[in-house]
């Protein structure tokens, strides 16, 4: 199969009279849709009565679409189990933390660990894989849909039993667990695994170890379900398998995608939050290294349900999003959804066609995406995204720690995106990488908001430093053990010796009117902070005002050919952004980071390469237009005109392709 860039939509032909398929195909061809995703909510269509499974409808639709060159991503329908599986079976349903048992309807109402559900899910998955796995036009699989989007950990009895087994596998003996969790506190001591509660409603907060471990348990169980489904499909089909996830569902994406073939994500960020859109591209590109990611769902105009809606995209923004994702490593840009839903709870959601079969407000924008896709396709297919030199570690395990310990309602994802924006807006090409990712090829590594620095992460990062990398650690990094307890040997554990510091105190800076200084820039400090005493490190950032005046909050220490930098607090406000920018630029220069431009804020440069030839895709995301300086002469990738070195301009939501030779 020849490689191509996909432009797709989620399609629900099972909800419409069959005659409408012809009309849909006509509009799909007009809009440039070359792939659809189907089947993820169609369990009751496929298996109306338990045991009588009929795939002929979808087989027929897939064939008809394929006759027109429209390919299919087929899904397993497990997010919406049918009534015969749920009726009169409260023990199969998802139970939330308050003990409420979910009823039928909506979606994700069943416990994915329930053995009866798993048996029925395996049967329907196998039948779909058998009937559809080798059909022409089926190019990929999506498992389920948005795992743990609407629900988090389940508290049913099935999960209770599995939880006890999981703990026993993890800790071995109850004494090891008691010691690791410090259960003498508040008389929590357990005599055996079967006594350990699920962290349901309690008079006050649960032990941090219990709360965090229950999340990690839940992460692993949903990933096991994905593994099981993928294995069934692989018996019958060679098409690659993915799942559509995000960074706010209750999953560990690194673990979830471990046994899947490519990464895909859903995003409904508004234009005002384009940094979040780019954050996703920079993360999912690196989740399956060397594999293109898919934007599996995004709205052609706005996201909405019966109870909410986002701001509609300005005209032109959709094209900027599409070009940015293709340039940053995307193979597909797909809408949710093709035809507006007539029923259910998402009728107001943006779509390409309305429920009454007419183009929506997004339709012309979708056509613009198609023009752009065609224009850049051969360039994208003949190049690869350049590996960044600046990496930021992203961790869903860290996210679980913050959920257990949010201080003042801290949200991991928001903290990370804000931190990422500092690097983005300073013109660095950047990779967001997972905790277990290789550090090969990077020059500057940021590890913010990682409460537990695992021994394996620390060893990898130490090697990175010794071989010449600059590693910036913090804020809020290193203060917790893997069991979500506090270190006994040092405030930030093993990290301190390597960093050449000792943590004197940790406390929240908010409300203390603390001011920190780094390279002549002063800014207010915030968040739970670590105050350092240098051992053999140098103090480069010190506290000028507040209750720790004169002490250090930024230190640096040479190790091998590189350097380790401790950032103990988060500078905030306009001055804080300035201080962080100074810090990023200072250490990027020391680390000799070269994939850096002077691109103006709101515009991005996505560098790609082929055999040493560099290609820039410049995209304006904020609608204000922008500028960037070319350091050498280039050639316009669309017109073929030479572009002399120097500054160039880019219009609102426009893109430019620039080739540099030699
Ligand atoms: Zn359960």
TrEMBL record:
<keyword id="KW-0326">Glycosidase</keyword>
<feature type="binding site">
    <location>
        <position position="156"/>
    </location>
    <ligand>
        <name>Zn(2+)</name>
    </ligand>
</feature>
<keyword id="KW-0378">Hydrolase</keyword>
<dbReference type="GO" id="GO:0005975">
    <property type="term" value="P:carbohydrate metabolic process"/>
</dbReference>
<dbReference type="InterPro" id="IPR013738">
    <property type="entry name" value="Beta_galactosidase_Trimer"/>
</dbReference>
<dbReference type="InterPro" id="IPR029062">
    <property type="entry name" value="Class_I_gatase-like"/>
</dbReference>
<dbReference type="GO" id="GO:0046872">
    <property type="term" value="F:metal ion binding"/>
</dbReference>
<dbReference type="InterPro" id="IPR003476">
    <property type="entry name" value="Glyco_hydro_42"/>
</dbReference>
<feature type="binding site">
    <location>
        <position position="145"/>
    </location>
    <ligand>
        <name>substrate</name>
    </ligand>
</feature>
<dbReference type="InterPro" id="IPR013529">
    <property type="entry name" value="Glyco_hydro_42_N"/>
</dbReference>
<keyword id="KW-0862">Zinc</keyword>
<feature type="binding site">
    <location>
        <position position="107"/>
    </location>
    <ligand>
        <name>substrate</name>
    </ligand>
</feature>
<feature type="active site" description="Nucleophile">
    <location>
        <position position="297"/>
    </location>
</feature>
<keyword id="KW-0479">Metal-binding</keyword>
<feature type="domain" description="Glycoside hydrolase family 42 N-terminal">
    <location>
        <begin position="11"/>
        <end position="375"/>
    </location>
</feature>
<feature type="domain" description="Beta-galactosidase trimerisation">
    <location>
        <begin position="388"/>
        <end position="593"/>
    </location>
</feature>
<dbReference type="GO" id="GO:0009341">
    <property type="term" value="C:beta-galactosidase complex"/>
</dbReference>
<feature type="binding site">
    <location>
        <position position="159"/>
    </location>
    <ligand>
        <name>Zn(2+)</name>
    </ligand>
</feature>
<dbReference type="Pfam" id="PF08532">
    <property type="entry name" value="Glyco_hydro_42M"/>
</dbReference>
<comment type="similarity">
    <text>Belongs to the glycosyl hydrolase 42 family.</text>
</comment>
<dbReference type="GO" id="GO:0004565">
    <property type="term" value="F:beta-galactosidase activity"/>
</dbReference>
<dbReference type="InterPro" id="IPR017853">
    <property type="entry name" value="GH"/>
</dbReference>
<feature type="binding site">
    <location>
        <position position="111"/>
    </location>
    <ligand>
        <name>Zn(2+)</name>
    </ligand>
</feature>
<feature type="binding site">
    <location>
        <position position="154"/>
    </location>
    <ligand>
        <name>Zn(2+)</name>
    </ligand>
</feature>
<protein>
    <recommendedName>
        <fullName>Beta-galactosidase</fullName>
        <ecNumber>3.2.1.23</ecNumber>
    </recommendedName>
</protein>
<feature type="active site" description="Proton donor">
    <location>
        <position position="146"/>
    </location>
</feature>
<dbReference type="Pfam" id="PF02449">
    <property type="entry name" value="Glyco_hydro_42"/>
</dbReference>
């Amino acid at each position: 199969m020849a490689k191509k860039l996909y432009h797709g939509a989620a399609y629900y032909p099972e909800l419409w009279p069959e005659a409408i398929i012809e009309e849909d195909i006509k509009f799909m061809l007009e809009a440039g849709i070359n792939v659809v995703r189907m089947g993820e909510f169609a369990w009751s269509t496929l298996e109306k009565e338990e045991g009588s499974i009929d795939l002929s409808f979808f087989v027929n639709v897939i064939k008809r679409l394929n006759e027109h060159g429209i390919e299919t991503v087929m899904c397993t329908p497990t997010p919406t189990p049918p009534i015969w599986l749920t009726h009169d079976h409260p023990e199969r349903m998802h139970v939330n933390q308050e003990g409420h048992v979910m009823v039928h309807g909506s979606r994700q109402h069943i416990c994915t660990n329930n053995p009866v559900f798993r048996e029925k899910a395996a049967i329907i998955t196998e039948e779909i894989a058998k009937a559809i796995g080798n059909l022409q036009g089926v190019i990929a699989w999506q498992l389920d849909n948005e795992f743990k989007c609407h629900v988090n950990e389940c508290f049913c009895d099935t999960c209770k039993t599995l939880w006890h087994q999981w703990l026993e596998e993890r800790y071995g003996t109850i004494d090891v667990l008691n010691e690791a969790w410090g259960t003498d506190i508040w008389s929590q001591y357990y005599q055996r695994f079967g006594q350990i509660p699920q962290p349901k409603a309690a008079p006050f907060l649960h032990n941090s170890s219990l709360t965090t471990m229950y999340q990690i348990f839940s992460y692993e169980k949903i990933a096991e379900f994905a593994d099981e489904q993928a294995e069934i499909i692989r018996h019958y089909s060679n098409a690659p398998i993915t799942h559509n996830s995000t960074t706010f569902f209750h999953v560990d994406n690194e673990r979830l995608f471990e046994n899947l073939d490519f990464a895909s994500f859903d995003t409904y960020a508004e234009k005002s939050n384009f940094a979040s859109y780019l954050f996703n591209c920079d993360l999912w590109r690196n989740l399956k290294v060397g594999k293109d990611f898919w934007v599996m769902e995004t709205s052609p105009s706005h996201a909405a349900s019966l109870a909410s809606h986002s701001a509609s995209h300005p005209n032109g923004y959709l094209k900027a999003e599409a070009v940015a994702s293709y340039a940053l490593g995307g193979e597909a840009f797909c809408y949710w959804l093709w035809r507006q839903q007539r029923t259910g709870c998402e009728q107001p959601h943006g779509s390409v066609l309305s429920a009454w079969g007419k183009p929506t407000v997004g339709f012309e924008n979708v056509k613009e995406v198609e023009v752009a896709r065609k224009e850049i396709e051969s360039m994208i297919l003949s190049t690869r995204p350049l590996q960044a030199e600046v990496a930021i570690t992203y961790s869903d395990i860290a996210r679980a720690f913050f959920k257990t310990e949010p201080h003042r309602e801290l949200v991991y994802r928001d903290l990370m995106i804000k931190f990422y924006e500092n690097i983005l807006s300073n013109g660095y090409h950047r990779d967001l990488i997972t905790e277990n990712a290789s550090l090969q090829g990077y020059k500057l590594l940021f590890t913010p908001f990682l409460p537990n620095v695992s021994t394996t992460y620390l060893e990898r990062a130490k090697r990175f430093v010794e071989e010449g990398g600059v590693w910036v650690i913090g804020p809020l990094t290193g203060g917790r053990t893997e069991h979500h307890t506090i270190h006994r040997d040092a405030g930030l554990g093993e990290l301190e010796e390597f960093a050449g510091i000792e943590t004197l105190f940790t406390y929240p800076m908010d409300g203390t009117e603390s001011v920190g200084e780094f390279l002549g820039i002063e800014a207010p400090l915030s968040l739970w902070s670590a105050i350092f005493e240098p051992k053999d490190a140098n103090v480069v950032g010190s506290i000028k005002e507040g209750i720790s005046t004169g002490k250090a909050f930024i230190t640096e220490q040479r190790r091998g050919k590189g350097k380790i930098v401790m950032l103990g607090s988060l500078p905030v406000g306009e001055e804080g952004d300035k201080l962080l920018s100074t810090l990023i630029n200072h250490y990027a220069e020391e680390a000799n980071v070269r994939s850096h431009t002077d691109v103006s804020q709101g515009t991005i440069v996505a560098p790609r390469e082929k055999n040493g030839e560099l290609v820039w895709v410049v995209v304006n995301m904020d609608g204000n237009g922008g500028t960037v300086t070319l350091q050498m002469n280039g050639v316009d990738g669309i017109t073929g005109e030479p572009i002399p070195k120097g500054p160039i301009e880019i219009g609102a939501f426009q893109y430019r392709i620039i080739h540099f030779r030699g």
